[in-house]
């Protein structure tokens, strides 16, 4: 009987990952991802804006490089995002945006 009474009187165990505590943690964990994805968006935008005049134009190689660079940054961000801490804390939208951006950059690098 004593054990039942002691169990009733104990306070409920607090979880370390409370939903109200995740707001600040999401901001802190989002900073490295934003630092990677902003240059990736910029490089992809420049690659999309480049219009080479001829098949032997240097702009074609620059667009391919920028597309590949954008894909590299997105993959690096996705590697960070699949770590257990990020998967527990961040929403699934942090996977969707870089996959979409990397797909656009890859096809731009291939079709220049």
Q: Report the β-strand fraction as a percent range.
A: under 5%
Proportion of helical residues: over 70%
The number of domains: 1
Instruction: Write the H/E string, N to C.
Output: HHHHH
Return the structural class: mainly alpha
**Number of helical regions:** 5
What is the β-strand count? 0
Regions with little confidence, pLDDT below 50 for 5+ residues: none
Kindly report how far apart the N and C termini lie. 77 Å
Q: Describe the main β-sheet briefly.
A: none
Shape: elongated
Overall mean pLDDT stands at: 84
Radius of gyration using CA atoms only? 23 Å
Organism: Streptomyces virginiae (Streptomyces cinnamonensis)
Transmembrane segments: 27-50, 65-86, 93-109
Protein name: Integral membrane protein
Keywords: Membrane, Transmembrane, Transmembrane helix
